[in-house]
Amino acid sequence: MSKGILYFVLFITLLNNTDTGVSNKISVDSNHSLASGVFTESEFQIQNKTKDVTVKIGDTREEVERKLGNYVDYIPHTNVYEYRNHVSIHYKTGIVDGIMIYDTAMNPRKFKTPRGIGYGSTYQDVIHQYGRKAFMESKKGKVSSITYAFEKNKQGQYNTITSFDHLILEGGYENVKILSMAFDQKGRLSFMMIADHEFAYQPEWNHIQ
Fold it and tell me: What is the average pLDDT across 77-88?
């Protein structure tokens, strides 16, 4: 198993062990949205503007492999495929529901979110683009990971949320997307995942007996 895939598995384990209901792990921004714009469906993708390549939640596997080429590695029992440039994709019934980039020191900063966040971005860069309304984990006084949960409203826009309680009461997560990032010891982004709620918190291997 490559270093990148091992890191991915460890990060998913961390994400699934995070208690998203603990309020002291949540930092709330004073505004409901950032002045830079409204969160929309177009947020949930990665872009390589130099190559004019975009991979988004909802793409088919055929669309992804037309853009990225054939996969170079696969994690058994997971439906996660690794492509060149350290991009990993999870498919559910042939449709992208998870996108991951990690540790691309050899080819840095190729893929970013539409707001310009990618490998090497700082915690401050992330906060500037997405705000402080997030689930955060810290180690030795430094932020080690930050996770944003976006809930789709009736107008088709997304608001960041800091609790899943009302979703549990209403009985659904289908309108929730996740943006989660891990930072290295220097405070630089080293892993990023964009996914729907099901893949982020209930990956296949949790159910393997």
Answer: 89
